[in-house]
Amino acid sequence: MKKNLYMLILVLVFGFGAYFYYNFVYVEQPRKIRRLKSDITVMNEKLISAQILARELDLVAKLIEKNLALSAKDSLAEDASMPFLNDITEIMNDLGIKLLRMDPGLKINMRDYIKTPYKMRIECTYEELGMFINRMEKSERLITVEGFEIDNAIRKIKDRREKMERPNTHRVDVSVSTLTLIKR
Q: Are 167 and 160 in contact (CB under 8 A)?
């Protein structure tokens, strides 16, 4: 019983001590300072968001600038645009991809842009194909990969051994399209 009484007194002393400390000794920050502190936090978050958006908008503006033609007769809107062909061949040379055939299709005039399809047959490994598609999509030119078909038939193993080619290369048919924005 004595232990319980001592425990009760101890709890009451600590309770009154905490009450006294938080009401008289510890001075709480005034409400205005707390409100300003939260406002500063919100403003900092908005500033960081604005900086990120500004960086992204710069990249978008650069992308539009590189793909904007003044008219449908501009060099960017041609059926076989030389800047695009140069970019693609540079990427292929960097990755060691062998271009077997490339056929530009007829351009398709849309309302705000021109779509120029290309069909390519390349010879590469799966890893090189992935890096090739990744680099094409990251280029400054607006390129969409419409699809690809990999010819990895077993019957080619015999032919490859005779030709002494790399055994893990495959022929891939890739369909891509370039998009050229038209200024109106």
A: yes
Give Rg (Cα) of the chain. 33
- In this structure, the number of other CB atoms found within 10 A of the CB of residue 131 comes to 17
Report the distance separating Cα 85 and Cα 141, nearest Å: 11
Distance CA 121, CA 100 (A): 5
Per-residue DSSP letter, 27: P
Does the pTM surpass 0.85? The reply is: no
Q: Which residues of 147-159 are buried (b: 16+ CB within 10 A; e: fewer)?
A: eeeeeeeeebeee
Q: Which residue has the higher pLDDT, 37 or 154?
A: 37
Residues in the chain: 184
Express each pLDDT in 25-67 by its tens digit.
776 667 777 788 889 988 988 888 888 777 777 666 666 666 6
Give the C-alpha separation, 98 to 131, whole Å: 14
Amino acid code (one letter) for 131: M
